[in-house]
Amino acid sequence: MGISVAIDGPSGAGKSSLSRLAAKALDFIYIDTGALYRTVGIAASRAGMTTNSLEKMPQLLKKMQVQMFLNDKKEQVILLDGEDVSSQIRTPIAAMMGSAVSALPPVRAYLLDFQRNMAKSNNVIMDGRDIGTVVLPNADVKVFLTAAAEQRAKRRWLEHKEKGLDVKLEDVLAEVNQRDYNDTHRVIAPLKQADDAVLLDTTNLDFEASLEALLNIIKAKL
């Protein structure tokens, strides 16, 4: 059996970036579960669905194929029906659609075994919204990574600016708040801190300090 580290938290908390580097430092495999849901969200969007119109999702799941693997650089690659969508899943629409489809029981069931099987025989760091509470309830280490909504929005806004995207900070904050509401109020597996998870609030920490804090928590638990 492999060692599993579950990292949960709200949108924009830096879970993906911090988890990826922590996995590299520990020589673990990094699994971005949010990427899987965004991939399904892209498929739904391509099929003409919206966040308020997902009735045809069960039929779509029967014919779509999602794959995840690590390339030679140990970077995560996501395929949707054979197409590499690793960059497309980082767009705002993919994020919103991913959040919407993640509330659907058929989608969660579709991806649950996929995620658990990857953790069975590998040392993994897996991040998402319900890893420590649902996907890997017996994880060796659980961390709830968060930051104030305003700080998370500012970080995401700066990322958009670096990519040349013309977005307003208030619009990004509104998106973050909406994602928080959706994730914490969904009926199936809402976002919450597991009882045995360590809280890591990075509101007042820069990236390097956040990574150091995360690694210290993992090493102390292991």
Question: Mind sketching the topology for me?
Answer:
Blueprint: E1 4-8, H1 15-26, E2 29-32, H2 33-46, H3 57-63, E3 66-70, E4 76-80, E5 83-84, H4 92-101, H5 105-120, E6 124-128, H6 131-135, E7 141-146, H7 149-162, H8 169-185, E8 198-201, H9 207-221
Parallel strand pairs: 1-6, 1-7, 2-6, 7-8
Antiparallel strand pairs: 3-4, 4-5
Helix pairs in contact: 1-9, 2-4, 7-8
Brief synopsis:
This protein is an alpha/beta fold and 222 residues long. It contains 9 helices and 8 strands.
List keywords for this structure.
single chain, Rossmann fold, 3-stranded antiparallel beta sheet, 9 helices
Can you give a write-up of this model?
- The chain is an alpha/beta fold.
- The chain has a single domain, classed as P-loop containing nucleotide triphosphate hydrolases (Rossmann fold).
- It is built from 9 helices and 8 strands.
- It has helices spanning 15-26, 33-46, 57-63, 92-101, 105-120, 131-135, 149-162, 169-185, 207-221, and strands at 4-8, 29-32, 66-70, 76-80, 83-84, 124-128, 141-146, 198-201.
- The strands form 2 sheets. A 5-stranded parallel sheet has the order 2-6-1-7-8, sandwiched between helices. Strands 3-4-5 form a 3-stranded antiparallel sheet, covered by helices on one side.
- A hairpin with a 5-residue loop joins β3 (66-70) and β4 (76-80).
- α7 crosses α8.
- The longest helix is centred in the last third of the chain and has 17 residues, at 169-185.
- The chain starts with a strand and ends with a helix.
- The model has no long low-confidence stretch (mean pLDDT 92).
